[in-house]
Amino acid sequence: MINIKIPATSANLGAGFDALGLALNYYNYVEMEESDVIDIASSDDIAVPCDERNLIYLSAKDLYAVCGKKLEGLKLRQTNNIPMARGLGSSSACIIAGLVGANKMLGDPLTKDDLVDLAAQIEGHPDNTAPALLGGIVTAVFDGRKVHWVKQEVYTKLKFVAMIPDFELKTEEARACLPKEVSHKDAVYNLSRAALFSASLLTGKFENLRTAVHDKLHQPYRMELIPGCREVFDIAYTHGAYASYISGAGPTVMSIVDVENQYFAGKMKFSLDNAGLGGWQVKELAIDNDGTVLIDS
């Protein structure tokens, strides 16, 4: 039995739409091995597809096909800590689990670059799949076939605090609300801030982060689909967040906070409850620099 640990991810990081993402220390766990039949079950109380529609199974099957093999069946056990449809990379975690597990079962015929490429082809973009596999903060460009990526390990005095609402937002819906075209001015606005984000995070100029997460390509439109989102932003800044942004397609709001701001999460929960947003969970996280790893049985 192959045991896999896959981190949650937070994509876009404000202005880096479909290009920036980072891994977080919040994990799904998957156990898998070859079988003559499809034998899929949840190890917790989270409902998952238990047939050929299962995304882990489909991803493993795709890797087998790339390698010229047929996957007859799969025994699979999932522990899903990462909440689904919340902008924390639950789908990407499934894709990466299937690819890493299948590659291991075949004797590792594909390289890490191959896995990054295949994951992006399945998902359509690499901003979640690449950091889920690689860890750290990843800057990636997908040209339709190949992902050109850079991973940077991040060791900073920062924590990432996720405000996770009690409702889902499907990625398809969150993408459907975006404009088909943007102005040259808005494109320049985002490009400059995406570059500023990475440079500021990695050099410790955290005072730049609030400006760096501003965006005109997706967040203004997605905010309208997330009741309470603007209020969560305002509360986070009141309690000293360096920056706040919509994580992935939403609806989770992520705040970047100094580790010395030790009561931030507690103050956020108290304020959200008082603002009538008691359904929002507050979870304190850190960057995961390792990405997906195999666990010794």
Descriptive report:
Its EC number is 2.7.1.39. Catalyzes the ATP-dependent phosphorylation of L-homoserine to L-homoserine phosphate. One of its GO terms (biological process) is threonine biosynthetic process. It is a single chain. α1 packs across α2 and α2 packs across α3. The model has no long low-confidence stretch (mean pLDDT 95). The protein has 2 domains: 160 residues, Ribosomal Protein S5, domain 2; 128 residues, GHMP kinase, C-terminal domain (Alpha-Beta Plaits, 2-Layer Sandwich), CATH 3.30.70.890. The N and C termini lie close together (8 Å). The longest helix has 20 residues. It has 297 residues and is an alpha+beta fold. It is 34% helix and 25% strand. It is built from 10 helices and 11 strands. The strands form 2 sheets. Strands 1, 2, 3, 4, 5, 6 and 11 form a 7-stranded mixed beta sheet that branches. The protein has a 4-stranded antiparallel beta sheet with strand order 8-9-7-10.
